[in-house]
């Protein structure tokens, strides 16, 4: 089994576990990002408080709206990303070694090469999995969109009464989201937000660049020549992954907000100031009607969610890689012993 396949499978497994742990945070964050009316913004509320509000008003299941396609998307996304990342990285390392034999370089790949490798892998991942994430965003924000028309009827009810009212969300599954999106925007609708998402390839690229740089420095300090993260403890990988993701998230967060707004349902009855025709139209209207602060809505929640998810993913992924290689090496040793016995 090749390193690319092992890393792809391990990445998918790590991504699923990280998603299960952090999904409620992701749901709250998506709702924060797609809140378009400044007068209704709840950015000042704490993340835990907003989660409690969702549970109280809509039921705890809404914190996991879109979980099924999200898990499928995570497995596909992480699997595709890590597979192509390892594939491109192996080729980059082979090229560097070939150059070393010609007397150029030291045989290792630098930060720029790591950045390019991650960018290529991320671009392939985005183009292949974007439709899944559009559906996930629709399902995470469905309740918010569906309540808007009901508020016109409930507006005459005193606020203190509304606080005790629990509105059950209408049935809305994956098939419903697919059909709604197709009828609204056709086949191209499944690639909504692909431009800012492609630009956001810089997020995992920056993340991996920082991760590889810190990993290389730590191994050099210890005098280790082991490949990858071999020899490091799970907690050390956890910390490296968390720090790398923190840096990448702070830099690219505004694009994440634009992407979420484009992928959420563009209701026809909303204020035209909050209805976007494309990436640049969304950026222009957000600046004009909401100010620069709109690009950082829910950032605190996102930092907690993405950093925790990335740290768990890196840790689990590396442990799975070690486990798979250990099993494969053991099997190879057993096969070798069997062949030796037969040859006697």
TrEMBL record:
Gene3D superfamilies: Mitochondrial carrier domain (1.50.40.10). One of its GO terms (cellular component) is membrane. Keywords: Membrane, Repeat, Transmembrane, Transmembrane helix, Transport. Solcar repeats lie at residues 2-91, 109-217, 232-323. GO terms for biological process: nucleotide transport; transmembrane transport. It is a multi-pass membrane protein. Belongs to the mitochondrial carrier (TC 2.A.29) family. This is Peroxisomal nicotinamide adenine dinucleotide carrier. It comes from Dendrobium nobile.
